Amino acid sequence: MSAPVDPTSTSAWSQLTAARDTFEPDLRGWFANDAGRVERLTHTVGDLHVDLSKNLVTDEILAALVELAAETGVAERYAAMLAGDHLNTSEDRAVLHTALRRPGGASPELVVDGQHVDADVHEVLDNLSAFAERVRSGEWRGITGKKVTHVVNIGIGGSDLGPVMVYEALRPYADAGIDALFVSNIDPTDVAQKTAGLDPETTLFIVASKTFTTLETLTNARLGREWLWAGLTESGAIDGSEASRTDAVAHHFVAVSTALDKVAAFGIDTANAFGFWDWVGGRYSVDSAIGLSLAITLGPDRFRELLAGFHTVDEHVAHTPLAQNVPVLMGLLNVWYNNFLGAQSHAVLPYAQQLHRFPAYLQQLTMESNGKSVRWDGTPVVTDTGEIFWGEPGTNGQHAFYQLIHQGTRLIPADFIAFANPAYPLEDGGRDVHGLFLANFLAQTKALAFGKTAEEVEAEGTTGALVAARTFPGNRPTTSIFAPSLTPSVLGQLIALYEHITFTQGTIWGINSFDQWGVELGKQLALQIAPAIEGDEDALEAQDASTKALLAYYRAQRP
Ligand code: F6P
């Protein structure tokens, strides 16, 4: 892997620095004096209509940003990723989540490190689809012969956030009378509350873990198994013998993992396990077998539509020049805001209740990928990296934190995501409620861009100190992403859009966006501290003074 380009050494960076030094954002003026701005800055990718015109850029700045992408080799690195180069240098792995959504029979065939990737991907997809159909149709039954009514996905991070986000987003498509629940936290409250009220005889657990070593997931899987055994024994469905318990697991537990040997060690028949590969990062895995809960609840056809949506954007990135390449442009805008205008965070504001977990999903995607201080060759980064992603669906956010975005002292670029057609077309006294909802989306992006001047405030009759309080500075950047409806394909397109935004930024910063060493230390220390919690005095003594005092407090509170 070649050394990363130092972005600050490029001529584009110098141009951008000079532009920043004299930069005076003026969205009002730019819109008033440039009739072509909206058309020039609006792009289409798949079904996504992406309006970048309310961003704080001029044509010159955008051209310099595009030049930065060229000078740092974004297109070349993307091509290398698609081809299976080991972009994940610290783990010496290819990065091939894009292969998970290549259509069957794609040509030329993708062979990486001797693996026939396309064939393997489609074999698992076909098995997964067949299994999902068996569960949906009722051919697959629980130990007492009852049809599955609930699937409980046990996983964490990428083995949870993707499935739960997509399930919530596409729930209107769940048509088989099967609900999904998602257990992730090792806080026992999670599994206790999610299983409460479920019938063990009609519950199917999916243990989803790439490594099948994750403490939270394996603990919750064991708790789920105990709950199953206890419930089935209590109802007399099993006699509690070893053989009956094994039989219960065979009927009520399946797994998704890259480590099928560990699945077997847990007691799950590998005939009921679905594999994937080390070249799929956890946060890039919702389109692998990790999406099993989705194939069951939404149906395999919907799952394939989701994958096709991803692929549409993959193709756009592969075949579109940088200057029109939507994820590249959005990644470049983020670089502009972070590295030149001092933004530290980025809001994602879906005007779709169904996307209420999308910001949380994006937090793992973007922050686990680009929250790094070293580059892919082990040298320190030379710029700030990894902005903080956050958000809530509109209009809830409007009544919570938008105040700060409108009138606070921080620059917070925001993506607004909306759909022309609602999943539930309800009316209120003859008025289309979704239309009212969308009016808010349009109003917010307008208010953020153009603000309200003191003169306009005064013209409404306000005087004195209130004028300043009621003035909106404007020039708060937003991107509007609009689509016809939130279909499986559109959702796949949206996810892929953000994957490639993340990739663009990571490449410019010289980051390996596909490892996550920053999660390891806490995991190690938790294992060291656990004995101290359980009463081991040596483990207690080995702690620092603050941890020791906290452990003492803990012990004092326990019965
Ligand atoms: O948080 C670290 C992490 O490794 C994530 O990257 C991953 O998605 C999550 O843990 C779960 O890992 P696994 O799927 O192996 O259980």
Rg: 26 Å
Question: How many strand units?
Answer: 15
CA distance, first residue to last residue? 56 Å
CATH architecture label of the largest domain: 3-Layer(aba) Sandwich
Low-pLDDT residue spans: none
The CATH homologous superfamily of the largest domain: Glucose-6-phosphate isomerase like protein, domain 1
The oligomerization state is single chain
Number of helices: 23
CATH class bucket of the largest domain: Alpha Beta
* Count of the separate structural domains: 3
Query: So what's the overall shape?
Result: globular
Please tell me the overall pLDDT: 97
- What do we call the CATH topology of the largest domain? Rossmann fold
Name the ligand types: 6-O-phosphono-beta-D-fructofuranose
Spatial strand sequence of the major β-sheet: 1-2-15-12-10-11
How much helix, percentage-wise, in residues? 40-55%
Structural class: alpha/beta
* Portion in beta strands: 5-15%
* Main beta sheet: 6 strands, mixed
State the main characteristics.
single chain, Rossmann fold, 3 domains, six-stranded mixed beta sheet, binds 6-O-phosphono-beta-D-fructofuranose
Care to give the gist of this entry?
The protein has 559 residues and is of the alpha/beta class. It folds into three domains: 29-72 and 320-509, Glucose-6-phosphate isomerase like protein, domain 1 (Rossmann fold), CATH 3.40.50; 111-301, Glucose-6-phosphate isomerase like protein, domain 1 (Rossmann fold, 3-Layer(aba) Sandwich); 522-557. Helix content is 48%, strand content 11%.
Q: Overview of this structure, please?
A:
The chain is α/β, with parallel strands linked by helices and 559 residues long. The protein has three domains: 29-72 and 320-509, Glucose-6-phosphate isomerase like protein, domain 1 (Rossmann fold, 3-Layer(aba) Sandwich), CATH 3.40.50.10490; 111-301, Rossmann fold (3-Layer(aba) Sandwich); 522-557. It has helices at residues 11-21, 27-33, 37-40, 59-71, 74-83, 117-137, 161-170, 188-195, 215-234, 242-252, 260-266, 292-298, 300-319, 326-340, 358-370, 402-407, 433-450, 454-459, 465-469, 488-509, 520-533, 537-541, 545-557; strands spanning 42-45, 48-51, 111-112, 115-116, 150-154, 179-183, 203-208, 253-257, 273-275, 345-351, 388-390, 414-419, 427-428, 431-432, 478-483. The strands form four sheets. The protein has a six-stranded mixed β-sheet with strand order 1-2-15-12-10-11, sandwiched between helices. Strands 6-5-7-8-9 form a five-stranded parallel β-sheet, with helices on both faces. β10 (345-351), α15 and β11 form a beta-alpha-beta unit. α1 runs antiparallel to α4 (59-71), α4 (59-71) packs across α14 (326-340) and α14 packs across α20 (488-509). The protein binds 6-O-phosphono-beta-D-fructofuranose (F6P). Pfam families: PGI. Keywords: Cytoplasm, Gluconeogenesis, Glycolysis, Isomerase. Catalyzes the reversible isomerization of glucose-6-phosphate to fructose-6-phosphate. It is an enzyme of class 5 (isomerase).
